[in-house]
């Protein structure tokens, strides 16, 4: 009796192995993964279904992973795990042999690209058109390289030009050293008109006030530097009347 049960168990195992499908994951060079042979030895793939334990396999020499003992039928999720890269998951559909067919092995009926959170009824892009088949080769798709640390940016002189204070300093230096050159090449009449505008304008009064000049009772002596910087447009000559009116209005 024990011998008979052992023979039945061996026969069942042989039958399951005979009906197993082969799934191969190939790693091809790409911009994100230039050298597939540089993947660590811990890189592995897991084929998960809801009715049987997951099937695991590690990467082999040559840059591929091969799952040879897949006997469970139904829909499966193929995940590829790596310490350096993130790969897109795949959906693999395996169906049992048809009763009216001469084929007695399980067959792969679909291979699609899928993502987490997508409804199971929504099929992604087809990975292979050579289906149904008892074996399938799927090319792994690299999504991104994992970054565990933020790289410190290096020094670049161009980054200094992005600072507004540096730009203002450069413009000020350009005006300081470039204005005399412009004045030398300027027409005499235009130069005299420009100097007159500088003397009568508020900026000329500010310059004289800073230099301590303009004490003769002219416009420069009447110019209120603090009021100009505060945004007031009134001078000292009119400031008394306007100030008196404002004081009277406040008293009222």
H and E string: HEEEEEEEEEEHHHHHHH
| Average pLDDT figure | 76
User: What is the level-2 CATH architecture name of the largest domain?
Assistant: Sandwich
Query: What is the number of independent domains?
Result: 2
The shape, in one word, is: rod-shaped
Describe the structure.
The protein has 252 residues and is of the alpha+beta class. The protein has eight helices and ten strands. The chain has helices at residues 2-18, 157-160, 164-184, 188-200, 202-211, 219-222, 225-230, 236-251, and strands at 21-26, 44-48, 55-58, 64-70, 74-81, 85-87, 90-95, 107-113, 135-139, 142-145. Helix 4 (188-200) crosses helix 5 (202-211). The longest helix has 21 residues, at 164-184. The protein is rod-shaped, with a radius of gyration of 42 Å. The model is unreliable at 3-17 and 235-242 (pLDDT under 50).
Structure in a nutshell:
The protein has helices at residues 2-18, 157-160, 164-184, 188-200, 202-211, 219-222, 225-230, 236-251, and strands at residues 21-26, 44-48, 55-58, 64-70, 74-81, 85-87, 90-95, 107-113, 135-139, 142-145. By secondary structure, the chain is of the alpha+beta class. The strands form three sheets. Strands 3-2-5-7-8 form a five-stranded antiparallel beta sheet, with no helix packed on it. A three-stranded mixed beta sheet has the order 4-1-9, with no helix packed on it.
């Amino acid at each position: 009796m024990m011998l008979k049960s052992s023979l039945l168990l061996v026969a069942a195992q042989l039958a399951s192995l005979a009906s197993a499908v082969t799934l191969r994951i190939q790693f091809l060079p790409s911009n994100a993964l230039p050298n597939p042979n540089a993947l660590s030895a811990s890189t592995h793939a897991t084929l998960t279904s809801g009715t049987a334990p997951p099937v695991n396999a590690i990467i082999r020499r040559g840059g591929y992973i091969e799952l040879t003992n897949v006997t469970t039928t139904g829909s499966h999720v193929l995940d590829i795990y790596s310490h350096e890269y993130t790969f897109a998951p795949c959906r693999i559909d395996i169906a049992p042999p048809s009763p009216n067919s001469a084929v007695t092995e399980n067959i792969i009926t679909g291979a699609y690209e899928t993502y987490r959170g997508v409804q199971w009824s929504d099929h992604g892009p087809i990975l292979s058109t050579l289906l149904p088949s008892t074996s399938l080769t799927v090319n792994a798709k690299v999504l991104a390289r994992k970054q565990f640390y933020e790289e410190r940016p290096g020094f670049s002189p161009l980054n200094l030009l992005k600072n507004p204070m540096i730009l203002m300093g450069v413009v000020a230096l350009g005006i300081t050293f470039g204005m005399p050159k412009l004045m030398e090449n300027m027409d005499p009449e235009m130069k005299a008109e420009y100097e007159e505008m500088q003397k009568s304008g508020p900026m000329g009064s500010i310059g004289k006030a800073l230099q301590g000049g303009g004490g003769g009772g002219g416009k420069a002596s009447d110019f209120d530097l603090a009021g100009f910087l505060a945004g007031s447009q009134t001078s000292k000559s009119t400031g008394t009347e306007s100030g008196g009116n404002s004081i009277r209005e406040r008293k009222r």
